[in-house]
Amino acid sequence: MERLDIGIAGAGPAGLAAALFLARAGHKVELIERFAQPSPVGSGLLMQPTGLTVLDALGLSPAIHALGNRIDRLHGADASSGRTVLDVRYDALAGGRYGLAVHRAALFSTLNDAVVAEGIPVRTGITLAKAETRQSRTALHDPDGEIVGDYDLVIDATGARSQLAAASVVAPGVKELPWGAFWATLDCDGIAHDARALTQRYDAAKVMIGVLPVGRARAGEGRKVAFFWSLKTADADAVRKAGLDRWKAGIAGYWPEAVPFLDQIADWDQLTLARYAHRTTLPPHADGIAFIGDSAHSTSPQLGQGANMALLDAAALAHALRTSGSLEEALAAYAAARRSHVRLFQLLSYVFTPFYQSDSRSIAWLRDRLVATVAKIPPAPQILAAIVSGTLTDPFSRTGLTECRWPDGVLREA
């Protein structure tokens, strides 16, 4: 395909990765960011073999591994009985797969440093309200109606609250999910914890407390964990009003080993309330815009696929542009490449969420007694590992990627 003039809205992981793929393919690319200074949002996340493969394709595997923390298993137990109700191990699958927990600042800096090194321009402090396509060019408008850019293709990577998606002809319906979580990033050096696991404690499905060791936000800093506690977002104000000490005492009652982490929280400002929604933009393109990441699809984070899906979107779109004869063909190829994988994992997230975030005691009872038992019987361990890895169906071949494995932290091709 001929060289395109491409504007990318949003300098998060999806937008930064897309900018790298497309600039390296020879397209003229610029990023547009609404904040005065691009920066990460959120605490920690778990990079799966899918997202790690994309970062490796961009040559960023050494950088992200230097900051992240290897995760070998996801383990959850009932807070009262200690009974294991979740135990997913990456090594249930052959090939040396594992997860890499990272601070969002580490993922952002890894991608952003590469964008800066490539000399890709980033325009900041610009809010986008809508896009308008005329004569095969797409113009981006600010809230005052002024044109801030005119392109052959616009890529929307502005996230789940995207104004561009909401104003498009494929605007998705949004189902706000009742459950969210308080998140905090805390120090972990010198504190006893499982450094190779995402560890969780439950009270039925109404309480979920978790600790994810995420490595370092920046080189030279101490190691961190992402600490989270799920709740109904409608209850958040009442929890705050009841007081921080009461909230901390409740968690300590469920999980006494978490007290050294709780002792670091002195103010509600240290906690961020994450809200979740289920939405799908179908198809993920319209009128000269391609939607990627949360702009295209979002759901509960129960399976930890969000950033990984966004990186796969960026790779798939770049591959479609590289292998198609026209922009229209490329957008259709991008949609086809991601359709089945996105739909499958949105469905799985939707199905699994009530087992860990809901008011249903019967679902939690089923999880604790039946699911935990069945999960030990082959091929269930392999299936669960494939779900968590993001590879229950092949996400790579239609995105132009070859999966890589990282046994013992050493990269090799599968």
Structure notes:
It is a single chain. The chain is α+β, with helices and mostly antiparallel strands and 414 residues long. It has a domain at 5-70 and 99-176 and 278-355: FAD/NAD(P)-binding domain (3-Layer(bba) Sandwich), CATH 3.50.50. 34% of the residues lie in helices and 27% in strands. The strands form six sheets. A seven-stranded mixed β-sheet has the order 6-5-15-16-17-14-18. Strands 8-2-1-12-21-20 form a six-stranded mixed β-sheet, with helices on one face. A three-stranded antiparallel β-sheet has the order 3-7-4. Strand 20 (285-286) and strand 21 (289-291) form a beta hairpin. Helix 6 crosses helix 7 (244-254) and helix 9 (306-323) packs antiparallel against helix 10 (327-356). The model is unreliable at 409-414 (pLDDT under 50).
Q: What is the typical, i.e. mean, pLDDT?
A: 94
Report the sheet with the most strands, covering strand number, pairing sense and barrel closure.
7 strands, mixed
> Looking at CATH, which topology of the domain at 5-70 and 99-176 and 278-355 would you report?
FAD/NAD(P)-binding domain
**Residue share in β-strands:** 25-35%
